[in-house]
Design brief:
The structure is a homodimer. Chain A has about 260 residues and is α/β, with parallel strands linked by helices. Helix content of chain A is about 35%, strand content about 25%. Chains A, B: This is 23S rRNA (Guanosine(2251)-2'-O)-methyltransferase RlmB.
Chain lengths: ~260, ~260
């Protein structure tokens, strides 16, 4: 049996493992991530050019305690790993987080459940993304469907705004949001857009099935392509002529309904 | 009758008028504030050193339409008015906002009402303050009790995060929060702190009287002096071991109960 074949169980398992890793960078970020006992560290990447620093000693010590591989790279190679040489500070880490998985896996495991998800369709502001993760993690949300493109990337700003909850939040990775939503719909879930133009109020909306609440871009709202897939559209009524709520506030109101 | 006497009706009226003014600064901020037809502009202050610019022409035009006094100052005098020479960009405006008043006035007008207020006890982050104002203005909150010291000042960052709602939000000014809270208590209101250590859940708390919900500092929570005045303390239960919510998220959950 040739284990390099793309449909072989060994290949798929390996792919699933690498897909489950999240690479974070920045000294404080990596240090905080490693302090969480539930964070599994696969590899710690360090720039050979790093000068000695207390926080680096602490990071290496934590990595050794977790039994992780520690690799030293030249500056350019590290940049390719962190994908952000301006902010990585010579440190990156491949983490396996307890809540981070491909949405496929979630769908398999929760086929019959009446879950509630939040899907993000163009949330660009890192602080908003971090706050959404924090509120969803604290509230009654079973997963945050996060497309790889089109939203803020999980960077130190996001991690800070999440108050570190990104390391334990149920994050469901997908490539393309419309594809993922179609998969969820096929398995019986309802897709519901938040929109100030909707007629139904969030408070009066109580779906009988699993539901995915889609939050759109800070300025543009939910994209046209995603809107077309939505079964429902709900609004949050506002006083004093206020036209919209911050997207992270909207997420919190859904998470704590 | 000597109208300069500090207890004369004319003096008190004049004081009430000047107390009702909010001075904002920064070109974009002032421009946006003046675009709201409900904003009354008392005085526009400009630095003599300003070079011609389109936005300045627009600001002057709006000020003239509003029949306001326009005063040109040397740079130092303008700094004393804006209290932020680094960010005023040579422009400041004394505004009378529809929702901005001293808490005394609110107490007088709402003696028998079952109002809900949010009081801020050390919210330092301008973005949090702006978001709190936006959510409270959109939700079911009758006023935001904002002490002059100890919280972020209303600056361009706050105004931006408030999405401009600061110009219409019900802001109740006070000098000292403990003094104001004692006044409210004396008039029959309940004071309730938000605290993760509380035993009562926010959802299960339904006061029969007017209520002031106190939100504390982002790190420290409600101050000791204010805690001593609180009749109640409520929490928002959280999942996944999350220890706290962002203060602006907490405000939104109160505003949209």
């Amino acid at each position: 049996m040739n284990t390099t074949r793309e449909d072989s169980p060994a290949y798929l398992e390996k792919k699933r493992f690498f897909d489950s890793l999240m690479t974070v960078y920045g000294r404080k970020t990596v240090f905080e991530a490693l302090q969480d006992p539930a964070t599994y560290l696969y590899r710690l990447h360090l720039a050979k050019s790093n000068k000695p620093a207390e926080i680096l000693t602490d990071i290496i010590c934590l990595a050794e305690q977790k039994g992780a591989e520690i690799i030293y790279h030249d500056r350019q190679a590290l940049s390719r790993i962190s994908k952000n040489s301006a902010q990585d500070q010579g440190v990156a880490a491949d983490l396996q987080l307890r809540g981070y998985q491909h949405y496929d896996k979630f769908l398999q495991d929760n086929r019959q459940q009446k879950y509630n998800l939040i899907a993000l369709d163009g949330v660009h502001n890192p602080q908003n993304l971090g706050m959404i993760i924090r509120s969803a993690c604290a509230g009654n949300i079973d997963g945050i469907l996060l497309p790889q493109k089109g939203n803020a990337q999980i960077d130190p700003l996001v991690i800070k705004a999440s108050a570190g909850t990104v390391f334990r939040a149920p994050l469901l990775r997908c490539k393309d949001l419309t594809e993922a939503l179609m998969d969820f719909k096929q398995k019986g879930a309802i897709v519901c857009a938040l929109s100030s133009h909707a007629t139904t109020e969030l408070k009066k909306f109580s779906p009988e099935k699993a539901c995915i609440y889609v939050l759109g871009n800070e300025t543009e709202g939910v994209s046209h392509a995603v809107q077309k897939l939505c079964d429902e559209s709900v609004k949050i009524p506002m006083n004093n002529g206020v036209e919209s709520l911050n997207v992270a506030v909207t997420a919190a109101l859904i998470a704590f309904r």
